Amino acid sequence: MAGGGIAGEPDPQVGAVAPDFSATAADGRRQSLYGLDAGRLTLLLFYDPDCGDCRRELFALRHAAAVRSAVADSVLHVMAVCVGESDTLWQQSLGEMPAEWTAVKADKGFADSGLYSLDVLPQMLLLDADRRIMLLGADTRQLTYVLSRLWE
């Protein structure tokens, strides 16, 4: 899945504004990235429930104290975007998502759209309150380090 960004532009990079998109929530409604509460950080997590690395990273994120604390304090919003093909596996994965997270299923073909570079999954982006990319391609360890540094 080669990136390509919007209209042939390069993939989003640190400092760039993350492109908006919408996906389907479990209740069938559409949820856009920009429709999330403004004014706080957003962790954008692209995953496939059929991916072992994704399952391990989801487990680590759910149990990371810095992530749980930031979500509980309304400093961080997590948007978990399933880019896998199986609706059944996505539905099963919803039971593992914390209730405070926004879990959505991307439209068919989203992973190949070039809006985001999704060559490797899981893919995490930390966005600031203005939707600018602060951290790109991180894992839970790196994310928790950045979150802890923001509150020193």
Question: Which structural traits does this protein have?
Answer:
152 residues, alpha/beta, seven-stranded mixed beta sheet, disordered N terminus
Low-confidence stretches: 1-9
Beginning-to-end CA distance, first to last residue: 38 Å
- Helix content estimate: 25-40%
Q: What is the strand content?
A: 15-25%
Mean pLDDT: 89
The secondary structure category is: alpha/beta
Instruction: Give the strand order of the largest sheet, numbering strands 1, 2, ... along the chain.
Output: 2-1-5-4-3-6-7
Output the number of helix runs: 4
Main beta-sheet strand count, sense and barrel state: 7 strands, mixed
How would you describe the oligomerization state of the chains in this entry? single chain
User: What Rg is obtained from the alpha carbons, in whole angstroms?
Assistant: 14 Å
Based on Cα principal axes, name the global outline.
globular
Topology:
Layout: E1 22-25, E2 30-32, E3 41-47, H1 52-63, H2 65-72, E4 76-82, H3 87-93, E5 102-105, E6 123-127, E7 133-136, H4 140-150
Parallel strand pairs: 3-4, 4-5
Antiparallel strand pairs: 1-2, 1-5, 3-6, 6-7
Helix pairs in contact: 2-4
3D architecture notes:
This protein is an alpha/beta fold. 25% of the residues lie in helices and 22% in strands. The protein contains four helices and seven strands, in the order βββααβαβββα. The chain has helices at 52-63, 65-72, 87-93, 140-150, and strands at 22-25, 30-32, 41-47, 76-82, 102-105, 123-127, 133-136. The chain has a seven-stranded mixed β-sheet with strand order 2-1-5-4-3-6-7, with helices on one face. A hairpin with a 5-residue loop joins β6 and β7. α2 (65-72) crosses α4. The protein is globular and about 40 Å long. The N and C termini lie far apart (38 Å). The relative contact order is 0.25.
